[in-house]
Design goal:
The protein has a two-stranded antiparallel sheet. The model has no long low-confidence stretch (mean pLDDT 95). It contains five helices and two strands.
Length: 121
């Protein structure tokens, strides 16, 4: 079992974020006899997954929906699959945009360097 500070450090998110995820129903920590939050290895794996979804710009509302579907049971597998496939397509679209932007910036930087070299001559 991990405390809120330990799990926050392990996942590299704040304790405040963990409390927010709890409030939103994304995580459901165990409470000890004193009411302190405790987290298991399963919580750790789930939070690592949630963190990756957030890092790829999945809105909290979609993560909440995925969590709700997951907790509802196996009969929601198709809906969960669709949600993840849609997000994967969003990520792929972003990658395409970033690659095109990187190409454009490479050309622009090259143009500036050429101009600077010519001005030194």
């Amino acid at each position: 079992m991990y405390s809120i500070s330990e799990i926050a450090e392990m996942v590299d998110i704040s304790a405040h974020t963990l409390r927010y995820y709890e409030k939103e129903g994304i995580i459901d920590p165990i409470r000890n006899d004193h009411g302190a939050r405790q987290f298991t290895e399963q919580h750790l794996k789930w939070l690592q997954f949630v963190k990756k979804l957030r890092e790829t710009q999945m809105p909290v509302s979609q993560i909440k929906e995925y969590t709700r579907l997951f907790l509802e049971g196996e009969h929601t597998a198709n809906a969960r699959l669709k949600l993840l496939e849609d997000h994967q397509q969003f990520i792929r679209d972003q990658i395409e945009t970033l690659l095109a932007t990187d190409d454009m910036l490479t050309k622009k930087i090259s143009t500036y360097k050429e101009r600077m070299e010519k001005s030194l001559m």
